[in-house]
Amino acid sequence: MSEETREIQVINDGTLPADRYIDRELSWLAFNQRVLELAEDETIPLLERANFLAIFASNLDEFFMVRVAGLKRRILTGLAVPTNVGRAPTDVLAEINHAAYELQRRHSRCFAEQVKPQLSEAGVHIVEWDTLDNADREVLTNYYQHHIYPVLMPLAVDPAHPFPYISGRALNLSIRVLNPTTDKIEFARLKVPQMIPRYVRVDRRETDDNVRFIPLEELIANQLDGLFPGMEVIDHHVFRVTRNEDVEIEEDETENLIQALEKELLRRRFGPPIRLEISDDMDAATLELLVREFDIDMEQVYTLPAPLDLSGLFALGGVRRPDLRYQPHIPVTHPMFRTNSPSDKPDTFSAIARREVLVHHPYESFATSVQAFIEQAATDPDVLAIKQTLYRTSGDSPIVASLIKAAEAGKQVLALVEVKARFDEEANITWARKLEQAGVHVVYGLVGLKTHCKLIQVIREESGQLAHYCHIGTGNYNPKTSRIYEDFGLFTSSPEIGRDVTKLFNVLSGYAIETDYNRLLVAPLQLRSGLLERIEREAEHARNGRKSKIRLKANSMVDEDIIDALYRASQAGVPIEIWVRGICSIRAGVPGLSETIRVRSVLGRYLEHSRIYAFDNDGDREIYIGSADLMHRNLDRRIEVLVALSEREHFARIDKFFEFAFSDDVSSWRMLPDGTWHRSVVSETGEPLPDLQDLVMVDRTRARRR
């Protein structure tokens, strides 16, 4: 059944109210508002608040490039538009545009009225050209002449020079100049170079205790006379366009996935405009020209104060001011992988053979667990084969280097590379080819399905027998993001899991249809039905007076079948705790519908990324971790894996994690029955509530000392 058909049928299901879902796009905007609230929070260190402003801007770009672009494309082409709120798609789009615009204006005010002046008070100044003295201007002009001017490319727009292609997300200056010979006003466009730092140091002799930056576009704008000699520069304005950058591939119509993807990536650069951001001083004639050339509606024009594109604030990450940042968290080594000396490498195989190991990043080190596991497998002479899925990583990753080293050592190495990982497609193609050149068997998954699961399997010969060592995780095998993404990973030498993972890799790399797994739930054939069965089982326990409870943690919750099952479980009396980072279409605490459902959201220095599915089952508990969110794409159009935990200690760790998140004495956002979110930051006595991520770090540090 198609996604659209199934959603329409759900809407028409008369057993539950028609307005039981929160629109996914509006829910996503509510998530980004929570990010913005962190930037507005004066208890958070200033450079971290600037970073949250940058995250908000980057998030919103992707939202327009993918979600708004996809919705608009379907409306314009007459395709069925999935909507789980029972309203006209055009009405939803108008509401999205209005809500996004209001948030972006609030975002600009936060920077201009709070973060920027407070940074200045702390000695980190973002300045304008008019505030500089002649000595500063001379230094910057010299920098401009040697480092910026040679790469600038002003483009005229006139009958001989058609309006140029404007790339998505790039900053541009619109410039009007007067030709004194003809007394005619001409228009030119100048792209702000993206390879030059967005914020330029005014004086490189300044210390980080008192440092000044000028936006790159501000510096360029005050040097325009030299770009148009003999002309009079009348005015200039800043603008920026966001384009449809989603990638769509009809895999059943092509024999070569890589070639089809490369072609689609080229098309992405020329996707239609979705949003036009302009500085609020832009004249009417320039705006009219841009609207006409981009062929967009005024509803898609966002008029904002300069500077545009606050994702540029990521550049302040190089300022060395620990007093303006979070107190550092130092990842600890999991006790099972501890060595006698820091210079010693852990024997991961011996540790995993003793018992299953649950690691929690970034509180517990990725380098001394996952990375050490792969590195040991690559050099261990008893290892015969390594199989791994790769969704997002980096070409210089030690993970990729270890796979290459293993292949060069003669081991059988299989890498399942998902080249369709959104916005990482080009990078994945590049390093996948490097793996192939080194002798790694590289496969690209199944037609029509993204491979999103996180799996490693190592086959090792021990005493004449083959042992299976596996890692199943909730996050990508990326050492860089492992330091800022919260994720769990299970290491195991269980023969049962080893057989399950072997079957799954055979499905992924060969021709097989497998549904017989023991400790795994695998999408798209098992996972949806497995979760629905377990939710209904809890409801049945509740109806019969037995122990029941459901605890879920996910990045997003959208799937209507799962949501409806949770509503019915709530009506049966099942206590339900849902911990979600982003989109959440379920309504919490609604009388007669979801009275027993509580929903929390936690945002902070780390991106909450793990997925957990826990069921009380009348005391015979089941807890799964894995890669799948509660979304149509994860349950129906991806290879996803959940693995069942088995150790009592692991159950206790998950319990404590949820207790932190749902405690009234820990800072978090809670969903109200009307679908809005309320943030708890202080206790009833007015004291600041502790941060969940700080509590988990303390807990892991104490565990290391035991």
Which labels suit this protein?
eight-stranded mixed beta sheet; alpha/beta; single chain; 36% helix; disordered N terminus; Methane Monooxygenase Hydroxylase, Chain G, domain 1; Endonuclease, Chain A; ten-stranded mixed beta sheet; 18 helices; globular; polyphosphate kinase like; 706 residues; kinase
Structure overview:
The chain is of the alpha/beta class and 706 residues long. The protein folds into 4 domains: 3-110, Polyphosphate kinase N-terminal domain (Methane Monooxygenase Hydroxylase, Chain G, domain 1), CATH 1.20.58.310; 142-324, polyphosphate kinase like; 335-517, 2-Layer Sandwich (Endonuclease, Chain A), CATH 3.30.870; 521-705, Endonuclease Chain A (Endonuclease, Chain A). Helix content is 36%, strand content 21%. It is built from 18 helices and 27 strands. The strands form 4 sheets. Strands 14, 18, 19, 20, 21, 23, 24, 25, 26 and 27 form a 10-stranded mixed β-sheet that branches. Strand 12, helix 12 and strand 13 (441-443) form a beta-alpha-beta unit. Helix 2 runs antiparallel to helix 3, helix 3 packs antiparallel against helix 4 (89-121) and helix 10 (367-379) runs parallel beside helix 11 (398-408). The protein starts with a helix and ends with a helix.
